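hiii so um. not sure if this is the right channel but i have a protein structure encoded as tokens and i wanna go backwards to a sequence. like what aa goes where. can anyone help
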């Protein structure tokens, strides 16, 4: 009962947080696009951050932007993205446009001196990622901050998971995520090739990132990749589900299943077309290890560690990390089990060392983004007062470097090629220059 009460409290406070007073030096965000995702990923988390103000929004349709601003109490409405980027009162922008527009508008934003929180995937392909994250502007000491919003990596539960594994002895990792059929619309940007859509570009990119994080290394080779395409009559270059496996160092294998129109999977009859309801799951199997002890000479004691994280990508609502040590005492000659038992530890972490247990992973991510921005001397000079503006600020220390985002897109590209699908391209190459938001 206590666990259920905590779940309800955390969920309520995450969805309906109490807004805090804002400081004079708060970072003023502008939203590029009146998007459906921003209320959850930035607008709501910003309510509990004293150093963040959602100050402006711009959309292709000004009436839509004005209605959006009224609904979410955003004070400024700009008539275009260019107008927002030229506003000297805006410090940072959040870009959650269709993937095909990420490169264009992230580049324009950093050229305008705005810090950028960029939704996943960072761009449409690895070539674009290199173009964006290796932009010479970003190498300057007073450059803007650019972050790919891989939010789950900032939650303390994910860091707790990483601290519970032994990377050199991992042999197998399997990462799954399913979105029930009916939530992702076939008419939306996620299902349009010219907008750089696809399951692997949306849901599946988190699965790939989970593999790279757990192994702490890049894949050596894509061993296999396949997909289920969207129904006939729709864009057949779009994957609705993606399956793949990769070889990692130490002869380890990582695999994924991601489906953003999932149905079936139940054991009951007549349920094949029912939407699938299942928690994201990550299973990490370690190499068998010998346990020293006082045993007969013809016997040995081995242990296999298996770590499972439930709801790894949405850990702020609920999660559990199961750390199992499976012990076997067996005969050396034929491997016959003499005795076996399992020791299991259950671990959770909602707050970490510096957070609050009702913070979402987006809120932890915002904490890291703000800390990085406020380390920049140019921000401390533009607001007053800002104590300890220069130098590191306290926090989790989690960050995603540009090369990390480039490697992420490279893994996506190679998977699409292996599956027989084309890699995605940007709005500039597709001739589509007007964002849909």
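sure thing!! here u go:
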């Amino acid at each position: 009962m206590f666990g259920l009460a905590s779940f309800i409290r955390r969920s309520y406070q995450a969805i309906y947080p109490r807004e805090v007073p804002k400081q004079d030096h708060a970072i003023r965000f502008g939203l590029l696009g009146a998007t459906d995702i921003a209320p959850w990923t930035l607008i709501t988390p910003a309510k509990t951050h004293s150093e963040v103000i959602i100050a402006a929004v711009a959309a292709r349709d000004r009436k839509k932007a004005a209605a959006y601003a009224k609904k979410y109490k955003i004070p400024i409405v700009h008539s275009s993205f260019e107008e927002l980027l030229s506003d000297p009162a805006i410090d940072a922008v959040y870009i959650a446009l269709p993937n095909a527009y990420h490169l264009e508008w992230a580049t324009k934003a950093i050229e305008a001196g705005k810090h950028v929180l960029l939704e996943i995937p960072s761009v449409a392909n690895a070539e674009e990622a290199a173009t964006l994250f290796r932009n010479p502007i970003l190498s300057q000491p007073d450059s803007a901050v650019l972050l790919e919003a891989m939010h789950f990596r900032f939650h303390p539960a994910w860091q707790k998971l990483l601290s519970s594994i032994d990377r050199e002895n991992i042999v197998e990792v399997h990462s799954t995520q399913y979105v029930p059929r009916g939530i992702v619309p076939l008419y939306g940007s996620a299902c349009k090739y010219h907008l750089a859509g696809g399951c692997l570009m949306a849901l599946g990119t988190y699965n790939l990132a989970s593999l790279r994080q757990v192994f702490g290394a890049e894949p050596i080779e894509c061993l296999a990749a396949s997909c289920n395409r969207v129904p006939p009559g729709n864009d057949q270059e779009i994957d609705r589900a993606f399956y793949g496996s990769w070889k990692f160092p130490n002869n380890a294998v990582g695999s994924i299943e991601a489906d953003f129109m999932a149905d079936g999977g139940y054991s009951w009859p007549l349920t094949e077309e029912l939407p699938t309801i299942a928690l994201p799951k990550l299973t990490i199997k370690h190499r068998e290890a010998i346990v020293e002890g006082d045993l007969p000479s013809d016997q040995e004691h081995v242990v296999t560690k298996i770590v499972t994280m439930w709801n790894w990508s949405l850990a702020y609502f609920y999660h559990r990390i199961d750390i199992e040590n499976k012990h076997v005492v067996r005969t050396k000659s034929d491997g016959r089990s003499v005795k076996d038992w399992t020791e299991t530890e259950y671990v959770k972490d909602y707050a970490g060392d510096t957070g609050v247990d009702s913070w979402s992973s987006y809120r932890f991510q915002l904490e890291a983004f703000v800390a990085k921005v406020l380390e920049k001397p140019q921000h401390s000079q533009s607001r007053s007062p800002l104590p300890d503006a220069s130098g590191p600020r306290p926090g989790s220390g989690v960050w995603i470097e540009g090369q990390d985002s480039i490697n992420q897109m490279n893994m996506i590209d190679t998977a699409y090629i292996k599956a027989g699908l084309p890699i995605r391209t940007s709005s500039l190459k597709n001739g589509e220059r007007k964002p849909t938001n």
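oh and The first helix runs from residue 2 to 15.
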